[in-house]
Amino acid sequence: MGPEPHRSASRPDWVVYARNLAWLAVAYNVLESLVSMGFGWADGSFALFGFGADSLIEVGSSLLVLWRLQAEEAGPAAGGSGRERRAALGIGILFLALAAGTASGAALQLAGRRHPATTLPGLAVATLSVAVMAFLWRGKSRAARALDSRALAGDATCSLVCMQLSAVLFLGSLGYWLRPSLWWADAAAALLLAVFIGREGWEMVAAARKPDFQGGCGCH
Question: Is residue 218 situated within a structural domain?
């Protein structure tokens, strides 16, 4: 993909950049999901398998953004404001699903006294994911501001959440490896993240359902 447009670049330039970021997110997260779920199943690691399943939420969010951006390329007749509302609503629902999945996985881990993955694949996946998601979050956030899009801002937050979940997986795995008595730490952190994710999703759904929804991200 090309370099990030200058702050004063035209709207079409930012649309192209946002679309390229979305496709990159789809490609990476599909691969990450397959690898994580594969190693998680093989190693009996609930944490790594669940992390791979969470990656599919990011795929869904990015696909909604691509659908939203089609309106920008098709012109005013494509109903951009309606797509903005529906994309924002869809991403908010995905956030709620992610929150529920994260909380359920953490609760099962605590109830079963399961420890996070300590294998090299788990640590490697988490490390790479933090780096990639940081890049995507930064680019998506700037594109959301340039296009003043609530849907793109929500997608950027989704990348931020995935980055945080990656950090939880890495630190929990490393912590258990160094000190087995900390087996519960990543599950407890995941529960706190679930609250944050759920709040973001609820706010997006509530905003998208307002009659006066304009689609602006409020992030200028």
Answer: no
